[in-house]
Design goal:
This is DUF3624 domain-containing protein. InterPro entries: DUF3624. Keywords: Membrane, Transmembrane, Transmembrane helix. The chain is mostly helical. The chain has helices at about 5-10, 10-15, 20-40, 50-95. About 80% of the residues lie in helices and about 0% in strands. The N and C termini lie far apart (about 50 Å).
Length: about 100
């Protein structure tokens, strides 16, 4: 999924959770995959087409879960930890003057 945010940073963990466009695409693909499976393959769940759609759906949902986990839990936690370190650093250096 090419977008300007994902093209700028090279490593996977620097990209994930920061691109709304990628998350929107993954949401759309997850829903589309589920709807297609429901209307075409639910009667034959052991067919190759059905299993392929289920696996694709799990892949889209898994990557979307990683994006959301990073966006709402990991990145805010890291920023909070960084802010606390900066606050301690500033308060310890201001008392020395």
């Amino acid at each position: 999924m090419t977008c300007k945010t994902c093209d700028k940073s090279g490593w996977f963990w620097k990209k994930i959770g920061r691109c709304k466009r990628c998350m929107d695409q993954l949401t759309s693909l997850s829903v589309l995959c589920g709807v297609v499976w429901w209307f075409t393959c639910r009667d034959t769940p052991l067919s190759i087409e059905s299993i392929a759609l289920i696996m694709a759906g799990f892949a889209f949902n898994g990557l979307l879960f990683l994006h959301l986990l990073m966006k709402f839990i990991v990145i805010p936690f890291q920023q909070n930890q960084l802010g606390e370190k900066e606050g301690k650093k500033n308060s310890s250096t201001s008392g020395k003057h």
